[in-house]
Design a protein that fits this description.
Blueprint: E1 10-12, H1 19-22, E2 36-39, H2 43-56, E3 59-63, E4 78-82, E5 89-92, E6 97-101, H3 110-115, E7 118-119, H4 130-136, H5 143-146, E8 153-159, E9 165-168, H6 174-183, E10 189-196, E11 198-199, E12 203-211, H7 215-225, E13 233-241, E14 256-264, H8 268-279, E15 285-286, E16 289-291, H9 296-299, E17 309-316, H10 321-331, E18 343-348, E19 370-377, H11 381-398, E20 402-404, H12 422-435, H13 450-456
Parallel strand pairs: 2-4, 3-4
Antiparallel strand pairs: 1-2, 5-6, 6-10, 7-11, 8-9, 8-10, 12-14, 12-15, 12-16, 13-14, 13-18, 17-19, 17-20, 18-19
Helix pairs in contact: 6-12, 7-10, 10-11
Bound molecules: flavin-adenine dinucleotide.
């Protein structure tokens, strides 16, 4: 019990009747078991919680929506502080700037931006929290043109281990500002984030759906086209098995497709030309059209509700044709995998994702030609084993071509030093030592203080 912790917000213990809802993660296979779930109402609550935890030897795992709770692992003597009730939004359309409370999801912001002819750098699912997405990197539809969301962040407000409220920018606390943008929730509880957004009235976006049996033709053609695509065009090639659920519309319900989805910051005529070779393959369904940016939230058709899933990921340096063949041997129509792997997806990288912009944070770039992300829905123990085995095979096939790993796509406990080069990792640990020497904060991917890291090494 957190005896003596008095806040405006809520504290929920494992014995409370609302525990199930309070500790729910997006992957229902993840059973996060902290001492308590704490939901601050405001910044003053956050200060009280941080001071209490520091004085009582309790660790804090900061969280916004629990979309990436899997990597946290054991949470003994730890409280999860979820800022999901801090959801203010203010948009300055003329300045192309947004300020949000750290508990808000993209779905509350992207539609308003779209109405102003603006787009933020959100990812595939509008259900994801802006905080974790931005602090870990944030790779979405406009990333080849504008880079990672974290490098469009202009200010972060947080409460650090000493209980201080800080407004952190490139000018006033450059090291902490750098570390937060990629180093995640290891430096304090973030209460608000400010970031730049971009003028986008309309863009040419949609998806080409091929019967899954034609995956090889589609993936190989897509691969050949990648070097010809400008930064204004982002494409993702996937195999997707739609569940046979009533809420999934026909003709998708229970069907399997190979799909190229894309978003092009430009005119329809140019967009059509860029995709011409894929269209010549005669997709069964073609949804490309000029649309406002709000449509980007629905493009990937991500599941909106929590579900039991296992995922795998690699950043792939170069994508040779043989690797496509290997992938399809594991998940293609003749692989015998059936619907075990619900989604297999390759996202095109490069462009601004490969360039370190001036003033970038710890997560400055994403290396590689494509990012592999794959997941399987696994409702019971037997399925967990089958799905895990297939996903492990996909990751193993990609490993020899590995360019790195992107922490936001890693959903299990991992060694965070693997996500950074040695120099960046060292600096992250030094900033951690400076602001949180007692290691009060446990981000999803843990950055230890430099002194602790030196002992471990
Ligand atoms: C359906 C789905 C689609 C996705 N699509 C994309 C995509 O297209 N592109 C992409 O880049 N990623 C994507 N992701 C990954 C996503 O970016 C990560 O899961 C991200 O960590 C989610 O952030 P969150 O705040 O919602 O999650 P949380 O689990 O709440 O937070 C994750 C971590 O962020 C930090 N954090 C969160 N809130 C705070 C806070 N208030 N203070 C300090 N630290 C905090 C902590 O380290 C925390 O452990 C997707 C995930 C899902 C489930």
């Amino acid at each position: 019990m957190l005896t003596g912790l008095n806040i405006e917000g809520r504290i929920v213990y494992p014995t409370d009747s609302d525990w199930d809802a309070a500790h729910q993660a997006f992957s229902t296979l993840v059973d996060q078991r902290p001492d308590a779930m704490v939901f601050p109402a405001d910044e003053a609550d956050v200060v009280t919680i941080v001071n209490y935890a520091r004085e009582h030897g309790v660790r804090i795992a900061p969280q916004a929506t629990a979309h990436n709770a899997g990597p946290l692992g054991e949470l003994d003597d730890t409280i999860v502080v979820q800022t999901s009730e801090m959801t203010d939004v203010s948009i300055d359309p003329a300045a192309h700037r947004v300020r949000v409370g750290s508990g808000i999801k993209w779905e509350k912001v992207a539609p308003q931006l779209s109405d102003h002819g603006l787009a933020g750098l959100h990812g595939s699912s509008p259900d994801v929290g802006i905080a974790g997405y931005s602090l870990g990197g944030g790779m979405g539809w406009l990333a080849r043109k504008y880079g990672l969301q974290t490098n469009s962040v202009t200010a972060i407000e947080l409460v650090t281990a000493d209980g201080q409220v800080r407004r952190v920018t490139a000018e006033n606390e450059p090291d902490l500002f750098w570390a937060l943008r990629g180093g995640g929730g290891n430096f304090g509880i973030v209460t608000a984030i400010e970031f730049a957004v971009y003028p986008v009235e309309e863009l040419y976006a949609g998806a080409l759906f091929f019967p899954a049996e034609r995956a090889a033709e589609m993936f190989h053609t897509w691969r050949e086209l990648l070097p010809t695509f400008p930064e204004e065009l982002m494409t993702w090639a996937s195999i997707l098995h739609f569940p046979p659920l009533p809420e999934v519309p026909e003709p998708f319900r229970g069907a399997s497709y190979a799909i190229v989805m894309g978003a092009y910051l430009g005119e329809e005529r140019e967009g059509r030309e860029l995709l011409q070779r894929l269209r010549e393959l005669r997709p069964e369904i073609d949804t490309f059209a000029m649309v406002p940016p709000i449509e980007l939230g629905e493009l990937a058709m991500d599941p909106p509700d929590p579900l039991p899933f296992i995922s795998g990921h690699e950043l792939v340096g170069e994508l040779p044709a043989e690797l496509i063949d290997e992938f399809l041997e594991i998940v293609g129509p003749e692989s015998g995998s059936g619907t075990t792997v619900t989604m297999f997806q390759l996202r095109h990288l490069g462009g601004a994702l490969a360039r370190k912009s001036p003033g970038a944070g710890a997560r400055a770039t994403l290396p590689g030609e494509v990012s592999l992300f794959t997941l399987g829905v696994a409702p019971d123990e037997e399925t967990v084993q089958t799905v895990r085995a297939r996903i492990d095979r996909l990751v193993a096939a990609a490993e020899p071509h590995r360019a790195g790993k992107y922490p936001n796509f890693v959903e299990e406990p991992a060694d965070a030093s693997d996500f950074f080069d040695a120099e960046t990792w060292q600096r992250l640990c030094e900033v951690k030592e400076l602001y949180d020497p007692q290691d009060l904060f446990k981000g999803n991917h843990h950055v230890p203080p430099a002194a602790e890291e030196a002992i471990a090494a």
